[in-house]
Fold each of these.
Amino acid sequence: MSNSNLSIAEAYYTAMAEKNVSAMEKYLHPDVKLIAPLAEAIGKKGVLEVITKATSIFNALTIRAKFGSDDQAMLAYDVNFPAPIGKVASAVLLTFQDNLILRIELFYDARQVEKAWKT
């Protein structure tokens, strides 16, 4: 993986932490696929709808670690939600094509955030 892909991954999640969905959009491949415990989406429009909802329900996001290999990057991060949820440890595996995010696979304990997601 090129260092640029790892930089893109970090920039994408920094924009998410800032709740800047329009900045996130420029990193997404037109055929991006999102796979998460509470949502799935295919295509940039669908993924952006899920992202917009996600950014509306958390307070903060902090990247803890980042790793890259070939055309993939993995980030470990914490997402802080309003009480009673609190901090949720999370990870994401990103796959790149043409310096754009083609696949986003999220890992977290959905039981912690399910109630907030459904509101």
Amino acid sequence: MPLNEHEQKILDEIERKLIEEDPKLAQLVAKAVRSGANRWKMRFAVVLFIVGAVVMFASFTQSWIIAGAGFLVMVGSAGWLAYTARAAKIAAGGGAGEMLDRLQRRWRREG
């Protein structure tokens, strides 16, 4: 059920005040909303990986071409999963950049 004009104005005002009072919280909420799409993409990539594995193992003895296609589906879905997971981590404020910074600091301390 859509909001009426008055309710939409109230919601917009609450959003504006939230952004003014606590911009970090507003960013966190916005990132959480966007991460739902990433979760869906990651689940789909896992399903594709499983389908590719089943096709590969089921057809390995009959046709190496079909088994190869299943393997390519597996590789493609694994790449998509890794890309989506990395994008989700970077959007959440962590990810590879932060991890590399920590490793570099640790290397400098120990070396």
